Amino acid sequence: MILEQLKQAGYRITKPRKAVIALLEENDDMDAKQIYRTLRERGQDVDVATVYRVLDLLFRLGIVHRSNFTQQHAHFGFVKAVHMICRRCGKIDEKEVDSKILLDKMKDVLGDFSAQDVSVEVYGYCKTCSRSADGNV
Question: What is the Cα–Cα distance from 96 to 80, expressed in whole angstroms?
């Protein structure tokens, strides 16, 4: 399906593109360097710049989302979840969603804006941290 989206958008299906997509289908919460290292370990002849270019293309086409949970480096994955990040302990919880449903529900807010991707990161406090002993959050 993803390869078909690339074809329909006029892009060739190259070995690096196929490899990055296949890896993201296995584990869709990876940063570019993790993807690069894993592909190299599996014997793929790909350089890190190519991985970044493939990820950028997939992001621009709305196929993957980019999350900057740590502010150090971006993680990439297929849009399918809401990420809840605890401000106190840093725990990240994930709930599955359909990005098309989210975009449909946001039509009134988006107006004439042509949204192609949605990434939902909700910041607050996890159950454990919200029940802290002192009662202060």
Answer: 6
Tokens representing 66 are 């980019």
Eight-class DSSP state of 82: E
Domain 2-128 fold is Arc Repressor Mutant, subunit A (1.10.10)
The Cα 6–Cα 8 span in angstroms is: 5
Q: Which of 57, 53, 1, 65 is nearest to 28 (CA)?
A: 65
Whole-prediction pTM: 0.56
The set of long-range contacts for 50-58, using a CB threshold of 8 Å and a minimum separation of 24, is 50/16, 51/16, 51/20, 54/16, 54/17, 54/20, 55/20, 57/11, 57/17, 58/2, 58/20, 58/21
Domain assignments of the chain as residue spans, ordered by start: 2-128
Structure tokens at 50: 């190519």
pLDDT digits (tens, 9 = 90+) for 13-60: 999 999 999 998 888 678 889 999 999 999 999 999 999 999 989 888
